[in-house]
Specification:
single chain, Ribosomal Protein L22, Chain A, RNA-binding, Ribosomal_uL22_CS, 6 strands, elongated, 3 helices, 4-stranded antiparallel β-sheet, ribonucleoprotein
Length: 126
């Protein structure tokens, strides 16, 4: 989804509808990149030891490519204006246990949203 708001251009991308990770594990990575420039975000995500950083890195690459292709935004002049993680659906599975019983396993998922915005001359990131 692409929006034009008051001559400040922003690109909003929603991806990984069902990223199979807990919201809390993804949120600790998202909190580190919110408000940072595009290049700084890439460096942070490539060096972080968490499993959640790889899907977020792919999402940031995708948002920058969409911004460049669809709106002509320069990747070097953009920053992460909004990054959020919402709870997604929970898959439930049954695992067999002793004496014919079963044990419920909950597999959480999450939705990740990244908004890229272009830096203007009079605007600072956050």
């Amino acid at each position: 989804m692409i929006k034009n708001l008051n001559s400040s251009r922003e690109v909003k991308i929603l991806a990984h509808q069902r990223c199979n990770m807990s919201v809390f594990k993804v949120r600790r990575v998202i909190d580190q990149i919110r408000g940072r420039s595009y290049e700084e975000t890439l460096m942070i995500l490539e060096l972080m030891p968490y499993r959640a950083s790889y899907p977020i890195l792919k999402l940031v690459y995708s948002a920058a490519a969409n911004a460049n292709h669809n709106m002509g935004l320069n990747e070097a002049d953009s920053f992460i204006s909004e990054a959020k993680v919402n709870k997604g659906p929970i898959r439930k599975k049954l695992r067999p246990r002793a004496r014919g019983r079963s044990y419920l396993i909950k597999r959480p998922a999450c939705n990740i949203t990244i908004v890229l915005k272009e830096k203007s001359k009079d605007q600072s990131p956050i």
